[in-house]
Specification:
With 278 residues, the protein is of the alpha/beta class. It is globular, with a radius of gyration of 17 Å. The model has no long low-confidence stretch (mean pLDDT 97).
Length: 278
């Protein structure tokens, strides 16, 4: 199977003339896994180890949000707006049911997709994320800005500070992760522009101030996974509250891991995710 670092970027134009850039990988399946990436993320920010591992057993489709990377349009000003656009993308592909894999902000968007159209979802992986209105989510802008300033000053990728712990192990795992997502050398996706990035931050801030979504009547199986020291979306109480919000859920917490715990523990996460999605 072709590795994620080598798959081509495709484009799709929806009936309302929205252009989405996306990548597709994996085995044939009637129910694909739609991957929703983090704040400021594009198609090159997915950990290829995780994507390749999931693709051994599943059909993955990973789009850019509107206004990001190779997609057209402007960034949606709300998380709910992003979810509506992702649903339009899914329907334009012709799928009647999907699985969702949301990481960080992608987990916020995934929750809104579930809330807006629950019959579309078979199963969901919600990772490095928390519930709408969760504790500390309104602080993402402040945390991101502080970490970005530190990253610029130290000539370091900001994800080093936002995604991993500052222990020796965390620093090592951050370096390995950054190597993996920079492996693709040709046809890389465009980095997010500053206006779109600030729009996404404002959307997160607003979402973190809103009332939680009531998922209590949904039987959709959900796997919630995170590191035990998430600096962006505090693991306690958010990961625990999110798992409790879904009647049919499983919670996985990785030790000495931060926001990107599922990438740090890629082998275990792939094993658990593949088993869960079956």
């Amino acid at each position: 199977m072709t590795s994620y670092i080598d798959v081509p970027t495709k484009t799709l134009v929806t009936p309302t003339n929205k252009t989405f850039a996306y990548r597709e990988i994996g085995v044939s399946s009637e129910v694909p896994v739609i991957g929703l990436i983090h704040l400021s993320g594009n198609l090159d920010n997915w950990d290829p180890t995780v994507i390749d591992g999931l693709a051994q057993e599943h059909h993955l489709i990973l789009p850019d949000y509107q206004g990001v990377g190779g997609s057209g349009g402007k960034a949606a000003p709300t998380i709910q707006g992003m979810a509506k656009e992702i649903r339009e993308f899914i329907h334009a592909l012709g799928f009647k049911q999907i699985d969702l894999f949301g990481f960080s902000m992608g987990g916020f968007v995934a929750q809104e997709v579930i809330n807006q159209e629950p019959t579309l979802i078979r199963r969901a992986l919600l990772t490095g994320t928390g519930p709408r209105g969760g504790q500390g989510i309104r602080n993402v802008t402040k945390i991101s800005d502080k970490s970005l300033a530190k990253a610029i000053f130290t000539f370091t990728d900001v994800k080093t500070y936002l995604f991993f712990t500052r222990t020796n192990n965390g620093k090592h795992e951050a370096a390995e992760f950054l190597k993996r997502i920079k492996t693709r050398q040709t046809n890389r996706d465009r980095s997010i522009g500053w206006p779109a990035y600030r729009t996404q931050l404002k959307a997160i801030n607003q979402w973190g101030s809103e009332q939680p979504i009531d998922f209590s009547k949904l039987e959709i199986p959900v796997l919630v996974a995170n590191g035990d020291h998430d600096a962006m979306v505090p693991t306690k109480p958010n990961s625990y509250d999110l798992a409790k919000a879904f009647p049919n859920s499983k919670l996985v917490i990785y030790p000495d891991a931060g926001h990107a715990g599922v990438f740090q523990f890629s082998a275990d996460f792939v094993k658990q995710a593949n088993q869960f999605l079956k």
